[in-house]
Fold this protein.
Amino acid sequence: MEINATIPTHRAQPVRIHRNAVAPVVAGPWTVEAIQALLDKPFMDLLFEAQTVHRQHWPAGNIELATLLSVKTGGCPENCGYCPQAAEFDTGVKADKLMEVDEVVRAAQAAKDAGATRFCMGAAWRAPKDRDIEKVSALIGAVKGLGLQTCATLGMLESHQAQALKDAGLDYYNHNLDTAPEYYSDVVSTRAYQDRLDTLAHVRTAGISVCCGGIVGMGEAPVHRAGLIAQLANLQPYPESVPINSLVRVPGTPLADSAPVDPLDFVRVIAVARITMPKARVRLSAGRQQMGDAVQALCFLAGANSIFYGDKLLVTGNPDVEADVQLLGKLGLNGHRTTTTEKEQTECR
Ligand code: SAM
Ligand code: DTB
Ligand code: SF4
């Protein structure tokens, strides 16, 4: 009998262990075909499976609130086709210098007061210089001092830079793979997929938790969505946080005229991320402003348990805090609860 040891046809079988031992969480390796089969399942079956996996690994009704701040905006030398901050695209975003510590602390305190537990600082760099790492380290220390979890997304890192961020107290580093390897060069040509994987390895080695996801709606084929999820789910270990973004189509970027994603297809990607990475925080990320309450509710049902919270993402808009508090209330999430009667009273006023 021929045995193909390198290309499994489905998930690896769980290792048989003594019934009193604690099983390690290893869900991969996943094949692109197996993930494609999940994406193609009847919608209700897929959501049922995703919600079942979700409830096995997470408390029901808990959504993490993560606030973003662009600490260094615009003027980026990279050419990521989706990004309003790339210098070569005419998007109206002005290049700015790195924010000062007190300004960032004010924003972080406001995010904490509004209920956020994680604060993510983004910089429009291809790769930070060592002196940038020093300055960002001061920001990390100050934000952590407020009692918030810290996250940063600064571009490609070398290993000593990842270690310096870890020493500064960084909890998470966000670095997205964005799409499947086969589609990557259609979206960005100033760096390679392997560069992203190398940075993720440095982050992991430094002992920082990994936040890594991608974007849906960049003109990719369904197989590329499956390819992205396979890459993420097969990282050893898979990321602690997985942001799934719906492309925000910004005029002036090469992807501005991409066809909008079918919202139900977006929900499917969330569901498959949940099934393949059961213990990850799956974040319903960019694109919520265009989504409406019902689609977001389906994403939560599919296993999303984190959102970006605050009126702005990096440079584009996000739902108002007030709208999100109302949505959480309508869905009975995070202890918020608006009863039908209260809703009717508000609507009648
Ligand atoms: N420069 C760093 C980098 O590229 O890693 C950090 C900032 S970059 C803006 C972080 C991530 O934001 C990108 O990898 C991409 O996934 C997401 N992003 C950027 N523009 C977006 C858009 N228009 N719609 C959805 N997601 C977007
Ligand atoms: C992620 O996956 N999405 C966030 C965060 N990580 C850094 C960024 C979304 C950016 C959306 C477009 C903008 O506002 O620049
Ligand atoms: Fe630069 Fe990051 Fe935007 Fe790419 S996604 S252009 S690296 S800021």
User: Anything to note?
Assistant: The pocket of DTB (ligand 2) is lined by residues 68, 84-85, 122, 153, 174, 176, 213, 243, 245, 248, 285-286, 313-316 (CB under 6 Å). The first strand starts at residue 64 and ends at 72.
